[in-house]
Sequence to fold (325 residues):
Amino acid sequence: MNESAMRLHDAALVERLYRSLYRIRRVEEDIARRYPGNDIKSPVHLSIGQEAIAVGVCEALAPDDVVFGTYRGHAMYLAKGGDLDRMIAELFGRVDGCARGKGGSMHLVDVARGVMGTSAVVATTIPNAVGYAYAMKLRREPRIVVSFFGDGATEEGVFYESINFAALKRVPVLFVCENNGWAIHTHQRQRQATLDICGRVRAFGMDAQRIEDGDVFDIHGTVAAAAARMRAGDSGPLFIECMTSRWREHVGPGEDFELGFRSREDEARWIEDDAVAKLAALIPERQRAAVDAAVHAEIENAFTRAAASPFPDADELHRHVFHER
Ligand SMILES: Cc1ncc(C[n+]2csc(CCOP(=O)(O)OP(=O)(O)O)c2C)c(N)n1
Fold:
């Protein structure tokens, strides 16, 4: 972002974006650090490097807007206001977790804060988001529904069924593709004959735009404009592809640069352009120290509370599987 663009951003927004970015980064770094111990019971797909998307999008939403996401969902859950204590308890498999300890990191949910769910199965929450948004349209409720997914999800049949239906019925859903280039160890170039995801989406009759640089202000501004169009009425669905970079391995706390399929140099420009560091540099030192201290205390507390929570009783195993009245 250039100097003049920076001056346009008010200090309160800069602090909110920084707090959210830094908080997510620290939570995930803490998860990675603690992962070799035995407290975290589920696999973890870290979004370190990708935080600017969840933060830029969710800061442009209202509290009663809703989001649907993927197994790489910590950033989205936290950016939308999902309860941190309940997230860490969920990773610990404890009864105070957001899915009562039975879902783990890949199945985060906080309906009260508009986090409608995340799933381990690629692309499966995309039709859920479209269905929810269709219901909002029929009820004439102008709430924004966001569907987050990766570039790999755009290879699933259900993705095309969902965007076709959304375009046909002019369902006001905002699709956000987090394109980090990789589906596990396979690059987009080895999976798709053309890399033009937005072009494919436009062919279904939907506006689509790509944000190249991962800039949190660009993402925030683009989503704020999209949300305003959606709230105003008949925008139909909109699609935003955000280019980004995953710095850790696909699943787990470590890196994968030593495996040979990609190198640190491949991701260097993203790592050097770190959104957390860039935002930190925009905030006066004392103010930033206060934000950081509050974030550290909150995270420490969350891990302490999670450890104090019991595991669910064995007789809970068959509860909450189907809807219970
Ligand atoms: C339907 C389905 N197919 C395959 C998998 C195995 N799988 C898990 S993650 C993943 C890669 C998905 O990549 P992408 O959508 O780009 O998301 P990212 O992991 O980069 O966030 C695959 C193929 C799965 N979980 N579900």
The mean pLDDT is 95. Strands lie at 66-70, 115-119, 145-150, 173-179, 182-183, 186-187, 207-211, 238-243.
